[in-house]
Design brief:
With about 270 residues, this protein is an alpha/beta fold. It has one domain: 2-enoyl-CoA Hydratase, Chain A, domain 1 (Alpha-Beta Complex). Helix content is about 50%, strand content about 15%. It is built from 13 helices and 10 strands. It has a 6-stranded mixed β-sheet, sandwiched between helices. A 4-stranded mixed β-sheet has the order 4-6-8-9. Helix 1 packs parallel to helix 3, helix 2 packs across helix 3 and helix 6 crosses helix 7. The mean pLDDT is about 95.
Length: about 270
């Protein structure tokens, strides 16, 4: 691997096929949950990939049969307590979405097991998504006590329609890979032991295609997402405003105690 990726700590890189770069989220023992380093790296890596002359297609996956279990709880606690940390992570969350959108190289996501948090954001914004039949996709923001802001408002209504988007984003219901494919949230579903193989096969087909035509098609289609930029920016601001409020404290405590949160139903406004 070239020096271009040598400084990454959480993300691992390999070349499983010619001109295909495999980007692997790695946090052994924590289902590849992204800590502060991982969150920063998953937001920045797309710029390096965009400038990498040896890469035509990137494949995003998790290590050990899991995609990513979301954000590390210690980082969430720091976001609640520190304006400085909230501001830094807010910028990274914004960069993550816009950097994936603006990366000229096609990105294929291979979703195995749990898919939550910043990993989910990267997967849903990527160009082609392959999910295992028993993959577990969940946007858990409102269960945590913050608005669904890190990618959901910009892409879910386009993928599944407003009715389904509101249902899953407000209630945090889990989607299996099969159900996600049925409603259009992911591109295709594969047997759980064939997810990586299927994603790499798609990557090879993209490599063999006309690079300019494919990249310009991605750029053109992503103008739908660029038009939704103000919606995304507002949702992200509301999410991070929530990280300073009382609801996230109960949501975070419930997560640590592995119970359902008990929010105050009174109107806060």
């Amino acid at each position: 691997m070239t020096d271009r990726y040598a400084h990454y700590k959480v993300l691992k890189f390999s070349r499983p096929r010619p001109r295909v770069l495999e980007v692997m989220m790695s946090n052994p023992g924590k289902l590849n949950a992204l800590d502060a380093d991982g969150h920063r790296e998953i937001s920045e890596v797309w710029r390096d990939i965009d400038r990498d002359p040896e890469t035509s297609v990137a494949v995003l996956r998790g290590e050990g049969g899991a995609f990513s279990a979301g954000g590390d709880l210690s980082m969430i606690k720091e976001m609640h307590e520190s304006f400085e940390v909230r501001t830094r992570v807010w910028r990274e969350a914004s960069d993550l979405v816009y950097n994936v959108i603006n990366c000229s190289k096609p990105i294929v996501s291979a979703i195995e097991g749990p898919c939550v948090g910043a990993g989910l954001a990267a997967a849903m914004i990527s160009d082609i998504t392959v999910a295992g039949r028993k993959a577990r996709i969940i946007d858990g923001h409102t269960r945590l006590g913050v608005a669904a802001g890190d990618h959901a408002a910009i892409i879910w209504p386009l993928l599944v329609g407003m009715a389904k988007a509101k249902y899953y984003l407000m209630l945090c219901d889990t989607l299996t890979g099969e159900e996600a494919e049925r409603i259009g949230l992911v591109s295709m579903v594969a047997d759980d032991d064939k997810v990586i193989e299927t994603a790499l096969g798609i990557a090879e087909r993209l490599v063999a295609g006309p690079p300019s035509a494919i990249r310009w098609t991605k750029w053109s289609l992503n103008n739908w997402l660029r038009q939704a930029g103000p919606t995304f920016d507002a949702s992200l601001a509301m999410e991070f405003m929530g990280f300073s409020g009382p609801e996230v404290k109960e949501g975070m405590t419930a997560l640590m105690e592995k119970r359902r949160p008990k929010f105050d139903p009174k109107d806060p406004f």
